[in-house]
Amino acid sequence: MLPIEELLKPGVLGFYNSCEAVQIYLIDKRENPQKYINVYTIFTFEEKEYIELDKEHGGRKRIDDDFTLCFDKHYFSLKQSLDIFSKLVHSEFEEDYIVLKGSSLKLLSKQYISPDEGNRLNTLLKNNFFSGSYIYEFFEEDKANFDYFKNDSEKHEKLVDRILEVLPLDFSLNDDRFGNYVFQLPITILNLNYHANDTFDGFYIDFYWNNKLDTIPECSITNTIKIEHNFLSNTIVDYDGSETQFIDTGPLDKLSNSLIWRRNPNLLVYSCCPRFIRKIKVIIGEKDKTDLIKEKPKNYVDIINSTITENQLNSQENKSSLLSTNKQKSSMAFLQELIKKYGQKEVFIIDPYLSYKELLSLFSPLNLANVKIKAMTSKKVLSNFSSGMEEFMEINRNNIILHRNNFKYNMEFIITDYSEKLHDRFLIFPNAGQSNSNLKAYSLGTSLNSIDKNIHIIQEATNGNKILELFEEIWSEFDEPEYKIWPENQQ
Questions:
Q1: I want to staple 339 with a disulfide (CB 3.0 to 4.6 A). Which of 107, 343, 408, 414 is the partner?
Q2: Mean pLDDT, the chain, as a whole number?
Q3: Per-residue DSSP letters for 208-240?
Q4: Same domain flag for 8 and 157
């Protein structure tokens, strides 16, 4: 029996009836006859009934005189999919449309791919948003077919960009997957919802089982809470079969890692890091709102996280992932290219000297619809306007209204008093791909108001999750009418 057959059984992970396959391949015109090279093929199992359909040609993209990139979509029954899996297992390469000759494939053990942020494989899977997926991956260990691109950064970038123009698959950090075949089994038997109790020392889990299941499987629930690499708590309990179950975890001051294990067969069927936000109250003085902001007292987690964040942000300048801007291109234009590439859904900005001027300069030339923008400045910017906070906010609102026809984005813009934390400048893309997991963050090196005046380096951050957490922490504390520049609160 093929290893994948156990997971394809009804009710183990889902109730699969068909399979959609997308294949990306290159035509190497240097060879005679022309050589076909598999770039990436993904088989995604689905619950919809199988309908026999012809292969769909997704078009071609010219790379250069030597290579053309092609895209095909196929629809298979479960039996047809297993036949292809078997061919790959036994290296029975054929002159057909899906199993290409010249591969050196190694079947890896099954992998559970969680939907959590930071998992780069999520940028190569189909809609891995909810409960995660299992994959079987045939890994191409001989990457010689891609030396042509690996040895030339411009050609490599062009290949990656051409793929993104057609499919939401990002190989910019995944070129180790070139040549691979992936079989994806999305988990559809279970979805969960988490909510903390009032005392923040445990949470409730709401279980939503697939209504096609005859019986609810026996499961175990594990939850760990860590600070850095140190375990604060570890909980292991049996699932009691109810729709909602309480888990006593200990203090939820730090992110939890929650896992649901199915016992028979022994499989991880759910994984997530649930986030819980306590209500933060900000006390505002009546006489001078700008100077009477009371900061929430720090607890042990705040102090530890502050040190971790500061160390990681300071270490960015020593990382090798520096992005030098093109000498023929302004830094602002380079940032706009990043937004067009990664900011189709959301763009977050941290800049202590940010105003309407920089926001208009950055976004007005871009023709992007339905983009959610969250922009954060600080009271440091007031010195540039020689004004108080209320006057600064009014100036910004009036100018945004004036340019509204050229600025049609869904934007929120706040000012904060967190000068201690808000001293770096970042451009954050929480959902850089089609899935919610492809987080990217860039250190700007300088404020946007001087980005084409000063010498600086735009740099991709390696700790994007920490930067996003910092952004969300500050935003939640100042998401109040007193600090909202745009949209103006109607009171």
A1: 343
A2: 83
A3: EE-TT-SSPPPEEEEEEEEETTEEEEEEEEE--
A4: yes
